[in-house]
């Protein structure tokens, strides 16, 4: 009870409820996913540390140049470097705070998860014992504790999602060798939870491809995977080429990630995207 619902939420600086309105009080379904949250947390922390290391290396490089420039007394360049160093230092402090906030949220999440498991185990033990007034009262209290921990976990999941950043997707085109012919038209539909991206493309006579959109920003989601659907447009008819799902865990990294997914079962048509976190 030391980490009751009110105390957990008072320690979390949650953003506007609109950011995760499905987690509002009174929502019908409360279904936390501890294993998935653990995987996302580990990938997120690893990616944030990569950014921190890269900026620390940049700061070290700029600091060395700063010392050399000071000795050579090139004042204009010296002050410009000083400005860059201050900017990198501010970003590093921001990253360090971001990492500490994510760790704090996950620690609170793990505590609530353990309390919830304990309440579930005790509830199961009481249900096997002979029914008495005391045992029924205990079951009611345990059920209440279980529900509160479940609710807290869902609220923390919503708070953690606010810290996941953005995925910038860039369309690179279809790869299909003999399957792609000049004049063919395709529609690609990408979904991540409630976020959608629908774009149409055409194979030109020189085998190049033109698409009506090339970039889209998606907000990462703890539980949803990318769903990619490709259809071929033939006049008024549409032919389904394939539907695939793609996990986003590997996208939490400093370097752009090239994604090549098999749209057809035999891999005769592939879709190529680039993801930058």
UniProtKB/TrEMBL annotation:
Superkingdom: Eukaryota
InterPro entries according to UniProt: FAM65_N (IPR031780), RIPOR3 (IPR026136)
Residues annotated as domain FAM65 N-terminal: 2-277
Family under the similarity heading: Belongs to the RIPOR family.
Protein's recorded name: RIPR3 protein
């Amino acid at each position: 009870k030391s980490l009751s619902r009110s105390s957990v939420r008072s320690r979390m600086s949650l953003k506007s409820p609109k950011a995760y309105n499905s987690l509002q009080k009174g929502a019908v379904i409360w279904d936390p996913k501890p294993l998935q949250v653990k995987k996302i947390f580990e990938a997120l922390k690893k990616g944030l540390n990569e950014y921190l290391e890269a900026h620390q290396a940049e700061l070290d490089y700029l600091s060395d140049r700063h010392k050399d420039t000071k000795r050579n007394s090139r004042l204009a360049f010296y002050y410009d470097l000083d400005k860059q160093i201050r900017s990198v230092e501010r970003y590093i402090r921001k990253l360090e705070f971001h990492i500490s906030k994510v760790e704090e949220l996950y620690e609170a999440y793990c505590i609530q998860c353990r309390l919830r498991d304990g309440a579930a185990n005790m509830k199961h033990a009481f249900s096997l014992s002979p029914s008495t007034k005391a045992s029924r009262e205990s079951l009611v209290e345990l059920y209440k504790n279980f529900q509160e921990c479940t609710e807290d976990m869902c609220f923390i999941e919503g708070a953690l999602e606010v810290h996941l950043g953005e995925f910038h997707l860039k369309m690179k085109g279809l790869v299909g060798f003999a399957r792609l012919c000049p004049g063919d038209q395709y529609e690609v539909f990408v979904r991540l939870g409630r976020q959608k991206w629908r774009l149409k493309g055409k194979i030109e006579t020189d085998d190049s491809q033109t698409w009506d959109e090339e970039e889209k920003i998606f907000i990462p989601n703890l539980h949803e995977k990318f769903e990619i659907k490709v259809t071929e447009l033939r006049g008024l008819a549409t032919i389904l080429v394939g539907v695939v799902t793609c996990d986003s865990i590997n996208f939490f990294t400093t370097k752009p990630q090239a994604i090549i997914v098999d749209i057809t079962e035999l891999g005769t048509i592939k879709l190529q995207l680039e993801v930058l976190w």
